[in-house]
Structure formats: structure tokens, C-alpha cells
Design brief:
By secondary structure, the protein is of the alpha+beta class. It has one domain (29-251). The chain has eleven helices and five strands; from the N terminus they run H-H-H-H-H-H-H-H-E-H-H-E-E-E-H-E. Strands 1, 2, 3, 4 and 5 form a five-stranded antiparallel sheet that branches. A hairpin with a 2-residue loop joins strand 2 (199-209) and strand 3 (212-223). Helix 5 (69-76) runs antiparallel to helix 10. The termini are far apart.
């Protein structure tokens, strides 16, 4: 009997750290009281250059747990393998993969955003396509990466401040009219059905970086009464005609 008790105690000690580790590696945080707070938290984490904190403002595990891949495929009349919304989640293995796909969707936008604003002018505006090097390729490649190392983008951190977070009620009239159209609102309802959230909306953060004004578009979702960021390339960004490679961030022409 004593041996059995000792064995059970040892097992408990082995399992406890594993459980704590699983909790430690959860990507999303506890959510926010409103969408503006979720966006504000994201910008603060961006200002700190803290990718993990940025990710924690997004619904990640919750999105994958509530997403309906069948509804997503029906919405698009297609199976789209590259998105988490259509990924088949049938067991713990596929659900774990879906979480990683969800993270990769967010970080892919962050990587695009970095390249968009860190790309040296001599190489043109980054649009997501391959940049080929022909003549004197080695020197040009070395020059490119040297220029990345000296990019002003890394100077942004600690210099980003939120001027205001704009909700749909405060969108500029030209954007508001399109955003409130029946077709766009219908599309938003379909997104809400696919991700299984209670509500979904868009926000635009007017931010100032080293004295320059920018707009960061963000789509937010609500689960169990708590708001999270959903995407940096949501409905408002699409309606405004933003390119995916901007990561929802564009210069603000006042």
C-alpha cells in the first residue's frame, strides 16, 4: 500500500509540471472588456516590440475551438487548405495543428508588415513577391540585408503612441457608407458564423510613430463576454482597399 501511495505521489509530481507547462504555452490572454481595449493592448505590445504580448491580445485557442470549417467551406463554396477556418479539426492532433495555423496567419501578417516598412527604397515597395537578383547578385543581397539591419523600423519601438481608437460609428463617411452596406454587413455575419463568436466588429487605431501618423486596422471578436483581436486584415481593411502585405497598417494622410 505504501508503495502504491509513493508511486501515485511521484506520478502527481511528474504530471504537475507538464500541466503547468501546457498552461504556460497558451497563446491568448484573458480578453478585454471592449474592442478598443484589445486594440490598445496590441499597440502597447507592438510599441514594446514584444511579439508574444501582441499574440496574447488575439483570440487563438478560442477561435480554433469555435470555428466551423464546414460553414467556412460552404461560405466559399470551396475547401481552402491554407486557412485555419477550413482546416478539418477532428481530434486533439488536428486541433493542435489548427492552433499553430492560426498563429502562423497572424505572424505572417506581422512579417509582411515588417518587410513593407523596412524594405530599403532602392529595392522598391515590398508587395509580397520574390525579388530576383541577377547581375552582381551577391553584392546586392549583402546590401539588402545590411540595409535591413539599419532600417528605421527597429527605431519605432518605444516611439509608438495611440492617438485614438476609432469604432465604426466614427469611421470617415466614405468608409462608413461602404462598411454599413447590406452586402458588407452580410459578409460580417458570415464571418461571425464561421468563427462562432458572439459578436465581431472593426476598429481603426490612429497611432503616431516617431512623429508620423498611421492607421492600424483591426477586426475584433467577442467570446464569453470578452473581446479579443481577430485579424489585422479584417472587413474594414478590405473595404478600404488595403493590401494584405500592409498588415493593416498604412500612413495616415491628415
Amino acid at each position: 500500500m505504501k508503495r502504491l501511495i509513493c508511486a501515485l505521489l511521484c506520478l502527481a509530481l511528474v504530471l504537475a509540471p507538464a500541466s503547468a507547462l501546457a498552461e504556460e504555452w497558451k497563446y491568448e490572454g484573458n480578453g478585454f472588456d471592449n474592442p478598443e481595449a484589445a486594440v490598445q493592448a496590441y499597440i502597447e505590445a507592438f510599441n514594446a516590440g514584444d511579439v508574444q504580448r501582441m499574440l496574447s491580445t488575439f483570440a487563438i485557442e478560442t477561435v480554433t475551438a469555435n470555428t466551423d470549417p464546414v460553414a467556412s467551406a460552404k461560405r466559399q463554396s470551396a475547401f481552402v487548405s491554407g486557412t485555419v477556418s477550413s482546416f478539418p479539426m477532428i481530434d486533439d492532433y488536428t486541433r493542435a495543428l489548427a492552433v499553430q495555423k492560426r498563429v502562423s496567419e497572424i505572424t505572417a501578417l506581422l512579417a509582411h508588415q515588417f518587410l513593407r516598412y523596412a524594405m530599403p527604397e532602392a529595392y522598391g515597395i515590398y508587395d509580397g513577391t520574390i525579388i530576383p537578383f541577377k547581375d552582381d547578385a551577391d553584392a546586392k543581397i549583402e546590401g539588402l540585408y545590411s540595409a535591413f539591419d539599419q532600417s528605421v523600423f527597429k527605431d519605432w519601438f518605444g516611439q509608438i503612441e495611440v492617438v485614438e481608437v476609432i469604432t465604426p460609428e466614427g469611421f470617415p463617411s466614405n468608409l462608413s457608407e461602404k462598411y454599413r452596406s447590406e452586402s458588407i454587413q452580410s459578409s460580417i455575419e458570415k464571418v461571425k458564423t464561421v468563427c462562432g463568436c458572439e459578436d465581431i466588429t472593426d476598429c481603426i487605431a490612429h497611432i503616431r510613430i516617431m512623429g508620423e501618423d498611421y492607421l492600424q486596422f483591426m477586426q475584433c471578436c467577442r467570446y464569453d463576454g470578452k473581446w479579443y483581436n481577430y485579424s489585422m486584415y479584417g472587413t474594414a481593411a478590405i473595404v478600404a482597399g488595403l493590401e494584405t502585405v500592409t498588415g493593416g497598417l498604412i500612413p495616415y494622410e491628415l
